[in-house]
Amino acid sequence: MKEQQAFIPTLPWVSEESSWEGIAQVIERHILPRLDSVGVMLFLPTPQPMPPNATIPSIEGMLSKPWRNPYPLFAFVVSGNSQMILNGQWFNLPAGTGVFIPANTPYVAHTAISEKVSPCDVLSVSVFTFGALIHRCRLSPTAHLKSSHYAVLNPNLWDLCCMWMDLFPPSPTQRLAGKGILLAFFSMLLQTNALPFQAQLDNLFPPQWQNLPLPLQRALKWMHHAFERPFHLVRLARYCGVSPAYLCRLFKFHLNTTPVGYLTKLRLSLAKQLVETTDLSIADIAFLVGYRHLTYFIRQFRRLYGQSPSQVRAQVRSKKRPRRAIPTSVAKPLWKSK
After folding, report:
1. Are residues 58 and 5 in contact, defined by beta-carbon separation less than 8 angstroms?
2. Pairwise CA distance, residues 294 & 337, whole Å
3. How far apart are CA 78 and CA 53, in angstroms?
4. Does 182 share its domain with 215?
5. Is 337 contained in some domain?
6. Rounded distance, CA 336 to CA 205, Å?
7. Are 203 and 191 part of one and the same domain?
8. What is the layout of strands, in order, in the sheet containing 2-8?
9. Closest CA to 144 of 172, 177, 119
10. Residue 202 sits in the same domain as residue 309
11. What pLDDT was estimated at residue 278?
12. Which of 73, 82, 150, 267 is the most buried (most CB within 10 A)?
C-alpha cells in the first residue's frame, strides 16, 4: 500500500448540508429508513479483495498509515463510494451503506485506486462516555471538505453503543435485537439537542472583523470552524494564500496577538462556558475544545483565568444559579481590533 503523492487540502465545509439541520436530515431520511429496511446489515459490509493499485491519498490533516481510533465509530455513506481499509481488509461502500469501527481497530478512512480518489459524502458518529461527536465530510479529487463537529451530550448513547458492542458482530439470532439497539441509538441522536458550538464561536469574532484584510478573515473563519483540530501554521497560511511570517504580522498588527494565542483564547473561552453551564467532566471538556492532555489544558486555563476549571465550576454552583443551556447571545468578543 503506497501513499498517493497528490496533495488534497482539507477545507471547512460551510453549507446547509453540513449544518446540524443537514446532518439530522441524513439520520432521519437515510439512516433510520435503511436500518428499518435492512437491519444490522447496514453496518456489516462485506470486504473485497484489495486492488493491487490501491493507494493511500495524501489528505491534509490525515495520517498516511492506519489509525487506531480510541473510541467506537459509525460511518454512513450519504453519496458516492467510500473506499477504506478496516483491520487490513478493503471495503468499497456505496451510497446508503455504512460500517461500524470498534475502538482501537486500525483503519484508513479513504483510499484511492490508481491514485484517483472516489468522490463521496460520509457522515461519521464517534461515541464517547458523554454522548457522541458527529461530523460530515465530502471528498473529491481536489478537496476534502469537513463540517464542524457537533456534540450530542447524552450518556445513554454510550450505554446503547455498549449494548451493540456486546453483540458485535451479531449472530443471526441476535440481529433483531441489534436492529432495535441501533434504531434506538440513531433516534436518540435526533431527540437530543446538539451543543451549539458554532453559534457560540460566531459571537466571539473580533468587532468589525469583516473589515480586516482578507487573509486574516480567512484565518479567523478557519480557526472558528476548526478550533478543536491540531493547529499547523504553515497549513493555515497556505489556506489563506500568504506566507506564515506575513500571517503572523497580520495577527500582531490588527489583533495584537499571535495565531496560536488567538486559538488558545478561543478554545479556553468555549471551555469556560462549558465548565459553567454543563455537567461534563473537565477531561471531556478539554477533549471537546481540542486538548488531548488534561494537565496542559488545566495549566493553560489557570494561566488565563487565574483559577482551575474545577474552581470556576465550584464558584458558579455556590451561587446556586439554575442550570441552563449555553447562551448564544451574551458572549463577548475576545479581541479589540485596532
Report:
1. yes
2. 32
3. 25
4. no
5. no
6. 10
7. no
8. 2-8, 54-59, 112-113, 116-117
9. 119
10. yes
11. 83
12. 82
Three cell numbers written together for 310 = 474545577
Q: Which residue range is the domain that position 83 belongs to?
A: 2-195
Same domain flag for 173 and 306: no
Amino acid at 224: H
Residue holding cell 440481529? 175
Does any domain span residue 17?
yes
C-alpha cell at 321: 444559579
pLDDT tens for 97-139 read: 999 999 999 999 999 998 889 999 999 999 998 899 999 999 9
196 class by beta-carbon count within 10 Å (0-12 exposed, 13-18 middle, 19+ buried): middle
- Contact (CB, 8 A) for 331 and 204: yes
**DSSP assignment letter at 127:** E
User: Which among 167, 195, 223 is the end of a domain?
Assistant: 195
Q: What does the alpha-carbon distance between residue 203 and residue 187 come to, in Å, rounded to a whole number? A: 31
CA distance 261 to 63: 26
**Model confidence over 153-176: pLDDT tens digits?**
899 999 999 999 999 999 999 999
One domain, residues 136 and 87: yes
Between the alpha carbon of residue 56 and those of residues 10, 62, 238, 309, the distances in Å are 15, 10, 22, 41
Based on the fold, state whether residues 111 and 231 are members of the same structural domain.
no
Burial class (CB in 10 A: 0-12, 13-18, 19+), 198: buried
Q: Do 266 and 124 fall within a single domain?
A: no
Question: pLDDT tens-digit profile of 299-331?
Answer: 999 999 999 999 999 998 887 555 444 443 334
Q: Which residues contact 300 (CB under 8 A, 6 or more apart)?
A: 264, 268, 291
